Amino acid sequence: MREFFNNYVQSLETYIMFRIKETVAQITPELTAKNRAPISLSMGAPTSMPPKKVIEVLKQTLDEKGAHLYSTPKGEKFFREAIAKRMQDRFNVTLNPDKEIFSLIGSKEGIANFIRALINPTTVKSEQDIILVPDPGYASYKEMIKASGGFAYSVALTPENNFMPDMEETLEQFVKDGYNPRKIKALLINYPNNPIGATATKEYMESVVKFCKKHHILLVSDAAYTDMYFKSELKPMSVLEIEGAKDIAVEFFSFSKPYAMTGWRLGWICGNEEAVQIFGKLKSTIDSGIFKALQKAAAEIINSQEGEEYIKEANLKFKKNQELLVEGLRELGWKNFYVPDATFYLWLPIPPRYNSSVEFSDDLMKVSGIVVVPGDAFGEYGKGYFRVSIVCPEEQIKEVIQRMKTDGFYFDK
Ligand SMILES: Cc1ncc(COP(=O)(O)O)c(C=O)c1O
Q1: In sequence order, what are the residues at sequence separation of 6 or more whose Cβ sits closer than 8 angstroms to the Cβ of residue 170?
Q2: Closest ligand 1 atom to the C-alpha of 107?
Q3: pTM score
Q4: 106: Cβ below 6 Å to ligand 1?
Q5: Are residues 297 and 192 in the same domain?
Q6: How far apart are CA 411 and CA 413, in angstroms?
Q7: Of the candidates 239, 270, 304, which is a domain's last residue?
Q8: pLDDT digits over 224-235, tens only?
Q9: Which residue among 74, 280, 309, 356 is the one 20 to 30 A from 250 at the CA level?
């Protein structure tokens, strides 16, 4: 059967998060037997129930006539109008719900298909379209670029550049590396980002918009984590807040993280009208939109008081978990690491006695039942790091620290 599939798919492995899930399922009995039942710090998926309202509206809508018929790929009008109101109220960004917003079956689907829409597939290296991607960054970006026959050029996010790389300098390096700037289709940014949790300043967003306009590069912003933040003065922004950004940018949003609705598969793209509309044509050949009952529930929560309070409370919980974990890690000897003001991740160096992030993550899982993601999964600049997600209940964070102490997972011992 293998030979029927394209070269990329033939060499493809199951997506890292699902691979980890499968491994954990296999070794659960063994770990449980030695009192080390797995604690997952791997998935970026909040574990609480979604807001009550969203479930109530979903249940009510299930009985409505017509709810079970095809929706439209772009999303029901009430859904797009609710999104437009949210974008206005949260970011002061004005969008035309008929032309500048399109529904997605989760932002992962949207980004993957958007990338597909940009790249002219070819296996001839010098002719490949290029997308600049953050590294470390969400693992799906590079895979989808590869799958589409393009090339993903890593833009390094480092503590030295404050996780906001200067794009003109990056372009100079890109040319020195022998790549052709004319092949660049898009710059992908993700703030607050996965896996580091860093947020961009307004000045940085402005510089990125300016860069993309100057070099005629499409700006693609993945804004999945804009609602997960701990300081109101550092509230993450939408790139569309920058004047003139709509000329060159689209932005992806998701219901998954703010409302613990990862399994619902709901998101949207918004921004430049032409880009959204062209992409919409491709989408209309791929899927037929989101189940209307889900759209109804989502539209109800996104502008509600209950939704706002839910997000606030979830963020308080993430912050508390972050504090607990940071304190515990310091006791274990981790000194130099970035403590983010957004997202529910911590990006940590592996203890120096390990040769690789995979080796460390494997050991931590097999000995202590603590499941983290090796940094390599996020790109070449992820080597030597691991990502921890802090969405679990507080007791589990305490248990993690306790196990690490008991089992000898000290940073430099
Ligand atoms: C940066 C980033 N973008 C997009 C997604 C996808 O979210 P969803 O498809 O659930 O909307 C994730 C999920 O982990 C993510 O971390």
Answers
A1: 132, 155
A2: 11
A3: 0.96
A4: yes
A5: yes
A6: 6
A7: 304
A8: 999 999 998 889
A9: 309
